Every structure is written in C-alpha cells, then in structure tokens.
Amino acid sequence: MKGRVKLMDPFMHSRVQSFLDRFTKGAGLLDDRNGRYTAHCFRRGGAQYRFMFADEKWSLKA
C-alpha cells in the first residue's frame, strides 16, 4: 500500500507536505524557482475565503 492515501485515516501535516513536495517536483512546477507549494496554498479559510466565497463577503473598500 505504499504511496496510497487511505481515505478516512487521519495523517499529519508533514505527510501532506511530503505529498505536495513530491508531486510538484515530479510535475516540474517549481523548476527554476526558489520556493515550494505548501498546504497553506490550498486552504479554504481565513481572509481569502471571506473576500472571495463567503455568503457575506468582506468589502475591500477603505
């Protein structure tokens, strides 16, 4: 079962990051770039969600 995700089994943030690192490297998404994709890139929460998707969106007006 190596390399398979077991649905409904919890796993650590570090494991998610490991998957992201492996997949993005294999796809060449970060070639010639200094950085990496993190789990934070895929979160649906916080301010970004409020500005873009929530039923009651926050305004960008000052």
Q: How would you summarize what this structure contains?
A:
By secondary structure, the protein is mostly helical. The protein has helices at residues 13-27, 46-52. It is flat, with a radius of gyration of 16 Å.
The total of beta strands comes to: 0
The average pLDDT value, as a whole number, equals: 75
Q: Distance between the terminal alpha carbons, to the nearest Å?
A: 53 Å
What's the tally of helices?
2
Overall 3D geometry? flat
* Portion in strands: under 5%
Element-level helix/strand string = HH
The main sheet comes to:
none
Would you tell me the structural class of the helices and strands? mainly alpha
* Helical content band: 25-40%
Question: Could you walk me through the main structural features you see in this protein, from its secondary elements to its overall organization?
Answer:
The structure is a single chain. With 62 residues, the protein is mostly helical. The protein is 35% helix and 0% strand. The protein is built from two helices and no strands. The radius of gyration is 16 Å and the shape is flat.
Keywords:
62 residues, mainly alpha
List the helices and strands and how they pair.
Blueprint lengths: L12 H15 L18 H7 L10
